[in-house]
Amino acid sequence: MFVSYLILTLLHVQTAMLARPGGESIGCDDYLGSDKVLDKCGVCGGDNTGCQVVSGVFKHALTSLGYHRVVEIPQGATKINITEMHKSNNYLALRSRSGRSIINGNWAIDRPGKYEGGGTMFTYKRPNEISSTAGESFLAEGPTNEILDVYMIHQQPNPGVHYEYIIMGTNAISPQVPPQRRPGEPLNGQLEAEGRSQEDGEEERAEEKEDLRGEAREIFPSEAAQTFPVRHPDRFSPHRPDNSVPPALQPPRRSRDHNWKQLGTTACSTTCGKGSQYPIFRCVHRNTHEEVPESYCDPNMKPTPEEEPCNLFSCPAFWDIGEWSECSKTCGLGMQHRQVLCRQVYANRSLTVQPYRCQHLEKPETTSTCQLKICSEWQIRTDWTSCSVPCGVGQRSRDVKCVSNLGDVVADEECNVKLRPGDMENCDLGPCAKSWFLAEWSERCSAECGAGVRTRSVVCMTNHVSSLPLEGCGNNRPAEATPCDNGPCAGKVEWYSGSWSQCSIECGSGTQQREVICVRKDADTFEVLDPYECAFLERPPSQQSCHLKPCGAKWFSTEWSMCSKSCQGGFRVREVRCLADDMTLSNLCDPQLKPEERESCNPQDCVPEIDENCQDKYYNCNVVVQARLCVYNYYKTACCASCTRVAARHTGFLGSR
Questions:
Q1: Which of 375, 316, 418 is nearest to 651 (CA)?
Q2: Which of 135, 237, 471, 629 is the most buried (most CB within 10 A)?
């Protein structure tokens, strides 16, 4: 009894020394009072020289689509960071040397999240914000227990992939991370890290392969799978710390009447898909097998619970549903998509499998309609106004407004600029001549002396040229004759005209010549005088037009109208009509000779005002223009230059309609 009491007392004293508040600290070597800490290499008591940082940038120009290897992550790597240098349509992928995909294998893109592989947990990030330029990344603390390969699924030019990790140096001490202590175990007890044999690993892989037979094989670039020997952790060398309990005070050996016995196992960690469980050891009486307090058995003899596989059958497959994408339209009815994959969990890993394994479940929808808000629309508020000119080519306008679904007039940016109805157009009211057209009075009086008349031509010009008094000219036809008097016929000085020569052409309008002299006329004689004697009289023409016969109809045209635009290409028009010799409409003109009724004008580019404060703040503003986001003030400011250019093009397009 005394010996047992002494042993219990010593145990209580030792426990109190270890657990007392404010007592000495425990170092990374698991000894009380030790000041050793882990350095950046993970070496207990190291000086940061036992490892090296490996980093670089993969910037190879790739030509073919598909998987391309970027970098190899060696066994034992820590602080792993694989990051795209810019956002792209490429994807990063991760695979083990054994051929098992970890992230983005078999041409299936996984969702961002955490994925276990290579003995560590990888965090997969894929920024989804429009304004973000960050690329994809893999992050892991490590260390890895096998060689891993990083791939790029190449779809567009490689923006560059930065990689960085830490590995142990050749002269480095292997990290000494103490194993997890079990309840009741001495703090300074030296445990050996029991490495699993290679045969155990092969057996487990065989079980996993058998249980997931028929699984969809994951596609990567062809490369022979390599098997690497299992690296066992270094064993701790036994030694005793300076502050350990002296041998004389160690508790005596427990009674041989009691021993450790397995009494069942822990619950399996999973209900399916290969979980793990551990045996439960209890202290029992050797003969009666009754359970007694653990203090009756030697703690150093207690077996170490070994992990045992359990529930090896596969879990039922399930549909893994991704997040909905952004709506394809900012207003009105659009579409959104999501990824739906058939997955199955085995050995704490989620694997993508063939869709038929999920046929017992209804497959969720991969597309859906969406509507962020009701779109505003263009409304024509008024009819066309009257033409701006009473005749010829002018312009007319109407009121077009952008109206919200509540009926309020909003800014034009709220509506689709490409669908805006025109609010201004050209109008042609025909030729402007709608009145009497008068020729000059004839130069000679009908009588050489005494009373006579002078004549002129009078024509009414309307939409249809005619010499009749049509509506528009009125009935007030101007006079076509006026009286004239050349004075008394006796001794009168006058111009005398000879006979006209033959017409200069055979048809149409030509000219004729004649002699004109100044004479004094008496009763029966003529006296030729110097021309200055008749200077006070209007001299008859010595040349006139002549018309022997019609030559056929001809094309007549008006003057060109003003150009519809001052720059960037407009047009102008004129009226062209076929008129016969009598100035009436005709259809006998040669169509091949018809002058153009419309032609381009002012083709020079409009010179926009350059605003130095209007710049693009993001590299992908062309995406904003393509997505028609320039109607929002935020994108109009963030992508000012691109939005201003497209607005100028739209203005030119509307003006040319």
A1: 418
A2: 135
